[in-house]
Amino acid sequence: MSQISIGLVQLKCTAKKEENLTAAAEMIREAVARGAQIVCLPELFATPYPCQSEDHRQFDLAEPLDGPTVQLLCQLSGELGIAAVGSIFERRDAGLYHNTAVVCEGGKLLGFYRKTHIPDDPCYYEKFYFTPGDVGYPVFQVMGTHIAVGVCWDQWFPEVARLFALGGAKILFYPTAIGWLVHEKAEFGQIQQSAWETMHRSHAIANGFYVAAVNRVGLEGNIEFWGASLLCDPNGVVLCRASVDRPEVLVVVCDLNKVDVVRTHWPFLRDRRIDTYQGLLQRYLRP
Asked: What is the H or E stretch that residue 123 is in?
């Protein structure tokens, strides 16, 4: 397949899971009606972002890999003939929870990735909730191409994007829940959002593949989620960018031949000096 159509669903999440799942289904259908073959949703889209405080009651939001959110994505993938990418608060067992991205195709759960890098920042207390992922960096064959999925905080680490590229991914998705802390927005807002977009563009350039980040919008507690969902081509060109303040569906046709063209002209994978990178396996190199 030389071309594939990607749909990005930017959501505003409410306190009711049923409302969020209904909105997600409607927007997935809209994306497919506009030609999307792979559709990606934001991080933890079924509920409000749960990690703004350390609250044991939030574990009640979790669900297993065969729970209602994954069931919905599987059902839609089969009914609509697409691949659907989403993110859930996974209850693996009592006391064992993950932030997990799922890939559904043909009515089935094709596979999943568990978020590897877990943040612990003001209003992002994810280490209280999530165990780091243990499935490595898988690449999935869907709709005639190869994709990978990281989750939010993973997007800041160049090692993650490179490992997905080395695994054969041509499109990298990042379901995301990122925004401004209300009291910081005036001073740091523009810098933070610019840095976030720059990271995605740099991943696309350094690895010669498409990169999509799908965010939510709206004020939830102390976080104003900044939307701006985007898709970059292998040259780092932003092909689409959503608004910062409203739900939106973006659909973009990606020319997969461009991956080979860009990697041939900018042969970073060819010129990697893997014999010199042993230091990357160390926490820090200064004595």
From this structure: none
- 83-136 residue pLDDT tens: 999 999 999 999 999 999 999 999 999 999 999 999 999 999 999 999 999 999
Q: What is the pLDDT of residues 202-213, one digit of tens each?
A: 999 999 999 999
Other C-beta atoms closer than 10 Å to the C-beta of 11 total: 24
* Strand ranges for 56-190 from DSSP E: 83-93, 96-105, 108-114, 120-121, 124-125, 140-142, 145-149, 171-175, 179-181
Percent of the chain that is helix, strand, coil (3-state, to 5)? 35, 30, 35
Angle formed by the axes of helices 185-207 and 158-166, nearest 10°: 30
SS3 label, residue 206 = helix
Q: Which residues are catalytic?
A: 43, 115, 152
Residues 132, 139: Cα–Cα separation, whole Å: 18
Identify the sign of the CA torsion 41, 138, 204, 150: positive
Residue with tokens 């993110």: 87
Instruction: Report d(CA 172, CA 130) in Å as an integer.
Output: 22
- Write down the pLDDT at residue 248: 97
How many Å is the Cα radius of gyration of the chain?
18
